[in-house]
Amino acid sequence: MKTYRFKLYRSKKNKKLHRLIDVAGRIYNHLIALHKRYYRLYGKHLNVNKLMQHMTKLKKRRRFVFWNQLGSQAIQDIAQRIERNYKLFFKNQKRGIKTAPPSFKKIKKYKSFTLKQTGYKLLEGNKIIIMGNVYKYSKSRNIEGKIKTLTVKRDFLGDIYIHLTCETEETAVEPRSGKSVGLDFGLKQFLTTSDGKIIESPLFFKQSIKEIRKLHRILSRKKKGSNNRKKALITLAKAYKKITNRRRDYHFKLAKELAEEYTIICIEDLNINAMQKMWGRKISDLGHGQFVNILKHQCTKVGTMVVEIPRFYPSSKTCSKCGYVLEELSLDVRSWACPICGAVHDRDVNAAINILRVGASTLGGEGVKPASAGILR
Ligand SMILES: [Zn+2]
């Protein structure tokens, strides 16, 4: 599978797509309300098939006729997405991780809808028909493979992007043999490798905070509803977008380097929501979740294997030399000595070595060559 992302040309017609996204948002909220009501009445989770049967009836009612603008596949996709989020929520609850259940969204902030086989068609050149209208997009690369889904997405500047997911011929990249590594993600350092490399991530948001604050101040002085206020809003949104883009570029570059250097990369299965609860906004500025996705993508391209180890493995507290597990290790302790074997550990490097060891052991040791001698004892 491969996803292409293209920006649509700005056009008056884009309003129609914005309207469809609004419709998707209203449907989303309606379905959330149904879930909540069902739970209140029966104390059970509303199953997605049941929900869909009910929706088929709803669409025939006058009040909900506008739902049909979007087509049944897109509606189905919304129901399935909610289902996935609920499943994740229940799973987290079982594991004792507190996260919020899926909830209502402001229509303005609702971002996308997805079509499966119907409702769109690619034309020659850079044109695409979406729900009966022709749009132009900036075609930065050729599309390969069979298109499975089209997602129409808007950003906060009002620009519209299309995401095409394509099934590509399995060009199975042969796994290479070579060095393996464990990565430990953190707050102090963005990541630490088991062979002792420390990679700091620039906090892109923090770097620009002065500029962002200034733009917020300018905005607050503009009269509500005025054109100047609109302009100031756009400038602010652009500044935010620049931060996101810079972070993304940085992640791509780093992921590519790692994927090319190592052949097996072991990481912890991250729960970003839980991390966010614990550590606050800094974690979203670092963007570990986005980085892991990009890393996986880069790795499949070059035939590097990514091994995820369970999150609850105590990678920081375990001595990587003798396997002794400390009872406690507070977050501010950067290095420690093992009371059993006496080895002195840098907190993050030790964690990364453990992550590598556990990851490698799940592979049965096959083809695993430690990045530095003695790690896999
Ligand atoms: Zn030890």
TrEMBL record:
The UniProt similarity line reads: In the C-terminal section; belongs to the transposase 35 family. In the N-terminal section; belongs to the transposase 2 family.
GO BP term (any one): transposition
Species whose genome carries this gene: Acetomicrobium hydrogeniformans ATCC BAA-1850
**This protein's record includes keyword DNA-binding:** yes
One GO MF term on file is: DNA binding
Print the keywords alphabetically. Answer: DNA recombination, DNA-binding, Transposition
Write down what this protein is called: Transposase, IS605 OrfB family
- Where does the signal peptide begin and end? none
Q: What is the lineage of its organism?
A: Bacteria, Thermotogati, Synergistota, Synergistia, Synergistales
Q: Check the record and name the InterPro entries matching this protein.
A: Cas12f1-like_TNB (IPR010095), RNA-guided_DNA_endo/Transpos (IPR051399), Rubredoxin-like_dom (IPR024934), Transposase (IPR001959)
Residue ranges of every copy of the Rubredoxin-like domain listed in the record: 314-353
Coiled-coil residue spans:
none
